[in-house]
Amino acid sequence: xxxxxxxxxIFILHCSKDPEQQPFLSYSGYDTRCIFTENFTGTSPKxxxxxxxxxxxxxxxxxTVRPVSDTLGTVIWLEKxxxxxxxxxxxxxxxxxxxxxxxxxxxxxxxxxxxxxxxxPRTGAYDTYTHGNVRNYQVSMHSYTNExxxxxxxxxxxNPGSILLSHLGMDPCxxxxxxxxxxxxxxxRLQLYVDGVPVHDVxxxxxxxxxxxxxxxxxxxxxxxxxFSVILSDIHIYKLIPN
Length: 243
Hints:
- By secondary structure, this protein is mainly β.
- The protein has a single domain, classed as Jelly Rolls (Sandwich), CATH 2.60.120.200.
- It contains no helices and 17 strands.
- The strands form two sheets. Strands 1, 3, 6, 7, 9, 10, 11, 12 and 16 form a nine-stranded antiparallel β-sheet that branches. Strands 2, 4, 5, 8, 13, 14, 15 and 17 form an eight-stranded antiparallel β-sheet that branches.
């Protein structure tokens, strides 16, 4: 692909965990224990990037993501699998009103294999994460076309197959500003909060052996090169313990 940087890359970042740290979101019925914190400094652990884009860490403990393709997205994967009940909390700043953000949860192969053991190459194109031999839950937010046309919606889906689990006829991240995102997974219940406000609350009604209990977390971005960029910061994962 002439003039386009498309790559699979691994970059090393810092991780620390403080069990006493508390999330912005107060989640009733559970105690929280922080098991992962990322401030984008230092030398470990491994994250993995797929797709077409540039990433840059900042001195202010942030990660800036800039897609370089109109059609291929950029995915930042945490290499560690997350299992059980958990709360993912992160901050994301959209620097303009274009592009799209999708959060992938419990991503793995259809047969339960590790996501990175699959032989099928993934280039950041949306369809490679929603069909074929990849399974996950996904939720979309900040939904704009590359031309800047707003799509007032947010959807939660189950893949493969883009099975719609929940639909909201408004975009919880419409503006170009910073948001606090919380995703909660307790068993087959999936919830999304934006700035502490509930957005989605749905159960995967599949039998226990068919809803996803573990896998990887990925942050997908796609937008017009030169215009769309986002800043990720303050990623925390909390184990949820019933009280």
